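QA checklist item 7 of 12: single-chain prediction sanity check.
[x] sequence parsed
[x] length recorded as 716
[x] structure emitted
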Amino acid sequence: MIFYNQVYQYTDKEEKNRIRVIEIDSDVTYFVELHGVTSMPKRATTMELEAEIQSDILLHIPDPFAKNYSDKDLTEKQIQKRDEDWSIVSEGWANLKDELLNKKVRDQAFNKLAYRYNTSKIKVKRVLTRFWQRGLNKNALLPDYMYSGGKGKERNLTTDAKVGRPRKYLSLENGINITAEIKKQFKYVINKYYRKKEQPSLTDTYNYLLREFYADKYYEYNVLKYNVWDASRIPTYDQFYYWFKKFEDPQLDIQLRHSSKEFELKHRPLLSNSTLETDGPGTRFQIDATIADVYLISSFDRSLIIGRPIVYGVIDVYSRMITGIYVGLEGPSWLGAMMALDNMVMNKVEFCNKYDIPIKESEWPANHLPEIIIADRGEFEGYSVENLINNLNVKIENTSPYRGDLKGIIERYFRTMNGKIKRMAPGAIQKEYRERGDDDYRHDATLNLIEFTRIIIRLVIEHNKKIIDNYPLETEMISDRLKATPSNLWYWGIENKKGRLQTVTNQSVLRLNLLPKGNAKITREGIKFKGLSYGAERALNEQWYLKYRKKSIEIVYDPRNMDQLYIPHTDGYNFDTCYLLDTSEQFNGTFFEEIQFFQELREELKKEETINQVENTINSDAEIEAIINKAVADKESTVPNNLSKSETIKNIRVNRQAEKNMNRNNEKFDLVDKVNEQVVEFTSKTSKSEALPQKSNSRLMEKLKKKRDEEFEKGN
């Protein structure tokens, strides 16, 4: 059936002509062809056209000119021209329709309209043609300014005549056209100067363009300078800016001027949703930490401020259920993450009872391991990640550095939590930078760590009952009239989806796989780790200290208490315990950082004394060299030069004996105090007896000298 203002296309003609029905009068239909500047109405019987439609010679197609224009989006010029042409069309189509449709008297109608509106006949024909071809409405008469100027097409300028709008100022200097070579220059300076980490401005880049290509170099007082050409020979900044926008690549500009991380974090298109990556509760958990925007006081002395706490959170991506938290002073580090993961598998009713908060299990039912944990690289790139993967079948997906957007759900929860804490808690940070005269919010600190933990638990329970805005509900959820709270989504997902929740029956097994790992060495003094000595019953029974000396073994430890180490078995469930030996008992009850501090302090003291030790060695060596040099000089001055080598080494034993006796005389002990007056008489009486050994010594020396002389004469 033929309809008014419908567009049809012929399929049996090479030109694929399109027509629009502009009038249906009884058994006659009038139409115009959609091509051509002017197109006059033609007539055909309605039956004939319907037959062509039935035989698929004429097909109904969408209106190619169907567009929605709003007057607020049009320029004054467009509206003016449209309204002027509409006055011609509305007059002719309302009062002269029959004449316009009749070929014999059509020209007369054109002449009447041209005369009445003081315009040309061809103008009237074109205006009416536009009206018929483009939809028989007022906006069909809008001028095609969008096609003016060759928009989107680059012109190949082969003439020296300046194109474009004339300059408002400096009218005598027309400037230059932007040729293909100049475009290459633009691209060169944009790549070389603009797309840099230093982030130069576009004005700076334009100045580099002039310096490189449109300036003469010269030296003034041995200083290189540039003389820019006159304005008629250089491209203007506006021309450069125009082509810069044509060459602009926002993604590349951000990546090169800032970083790829900046683009991925703040500028990349967001075309997906984290929930689409899951198929039920437990598929993916996200873990992250934040430093809470509130200062706390000590639990032991409320006059002491202990700073801002660390809050770790674990959230299920599918249901948005908070599955684990940690509030303390550890982190952001593996220790804090370890505590959050430990809380993740803990029964939340028992956990809340520790803080005097009674809850039902349905209010916080999460005590499971997930299939995948999405975490930061810093905390989950070492330590016990392999144990989680191999022993507990939990996969770890580490995000790129500075890509908090990849954990957007937990990040969003932290922002909401911090916002509420700022509004309610005393001691909260109200703004990033305090101005002079502002109150110091740290003085308002009132909550201790236990009280703050209670607040976080209350916020978690509130979150689990709160409807999530913009949650992508599935059709089945809508059919079940599900309210999109984390608790409802958790239970609905367990019942209707696959999910990947795992139950931990023994929390000690999880802790064994969460504790950080290290390497200890077996020695005779025990199992050595971080300078401490440990012993184990198994090591004694199996004689490790004899069989496996200097062998390295893998252990796990709790940095908060170094009294014990644990040697895990290969099954991932059992372990042997190592205890601190008496040789290291001074470190009993200390934590890992303290031990490191003591060891570093010892090394610092050694380094502080290094210079003194070096000076002592240098001075000692200098004194030794002085003694040796003096001895050499004395030998050269006293020993004859005519002695042969054999004479020099002859009678070593005799010389040794003589030197030995002389030393004995000097080294002998004299127990009598010569200063004591009470023994003066005794010493005088014994003077003769003392002379005897002196005499015997002298007699012995004479014999030795005589024997030495005899042997010397024999040798000659």
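[x] summary fact logged: The chain is about 45% helix and 15% strand.
[ ] second reviewer sign-off
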